[in-house]
Amino acid sequence: MKKRPSRRRRSKPARPTPPASGFDVLDLSPALRRALADAGYVEPTPIQAQLIPLALEGKDVLGQAQTGTGKTAAFVIPILERLGGRSSSPQPRALILVPTRELAVQVKEEAVRLAKGQTVRIVAVYGGKPIRQQIEKLRRGADILVGTPGRVLDLMARRVLDLSKLEIVVLDEADRMLDIGFRPDIERILKRCPRRRQTLLLSATVPPAIERLARRYMRDPEKVDVSPADLTVETIEQFYFTVEPTRKFELLVKLLEREKPEQAIIFCRTKRGTDRVYQRLRKKMRGVEAIHGDMSQGARDRVMRAFREGKVRYLVATDVVGRGIDVSGISHIINYDIPQFSDDYVHRVGRTGRMGREGVAYTFVAPEEGRELTRIELRINRLLKRDEIQGFEVRRTSATEEAAPQANEPTPPPPPSSALRRPRRRHRRAL
Question: Which domains does the chain have, with CATH numbers?
Answer without folding.
Answer: 22-225 (3.40.50.300), 236-396 (3.40.50.300)
